[in-house]
Amino acid sequence: xxITITAFDRSPDGGKGLARDVRVRWALEEAGLPYDVRLVxxxxxxxxxxxxxxxxxxxxxxxxxxxxxxETGAIVLHIGHRHPGxxxxxxxxxxxxxxxxxxAVNTLEPPILELTMARLFERDQPGYATRLPTLExxxxxxxxxxxxxxxxxxxxxxxxxxxxxxxxxxxxxxRSTGLLDELPRVAAYVAxxxxxxxxxxxxxxxxxxxxxxxxxN
Length: 217
Ligand code: GTB
Hints:
By secondary structure, the chain is of the alpha+beta class.
């Protein structure tokens, strides 16, 4: 059955891999599944055809036969449940991998988003300079805890899993802040994720979209 995902027609980051379709592309690459991509503009995302797929008018979405999904965690979980390569066979290990997926989007991502959004959009606002250390401290706390748990292991719980996929992509958002460089184990963990051939293919595919020449009118 053909799988179709949606992605930005032009990602604001110009293809640095930060838009969340990369998580889905990466999961599909890990599972060895071919997929099509429908590119959508910011305007098209808010129109009824896209809102029927994604109630919040965002990307990515996932279509497979009569199934439509949104939310990257749910999409990656769906792929992992149906195809080898993302979730362990052992039931307990599988549940632990899902814990890490939730930790990525629910425990790590909120403070990371708060920090990175403030750095992008609040620099000129009063109070930014005093707020920044607080936002950084919240992220540092989580990074130290993650580093402690990771120790010298390659991945969070045995073999690479969807938990690592989600965690690495969430952490990549921090690259521009320099905070990753403070924790060598976490930095090496992210680099290991980025070095996976499946990630490289996912990254290259979204970069190609974002560096293509503008269409002639
Ligand atoms: N919780 C949802 C999920 O995980 O699927 C979040 C989906 C989401 O935030 N989608 C964003 C979107 O569609 C794109 S990824 N935004 C448009 C809108 O809400 O109108 C977020 C994103 C966008 C751009 C960059 N960047 O350029 O650096 C990074 C991340």
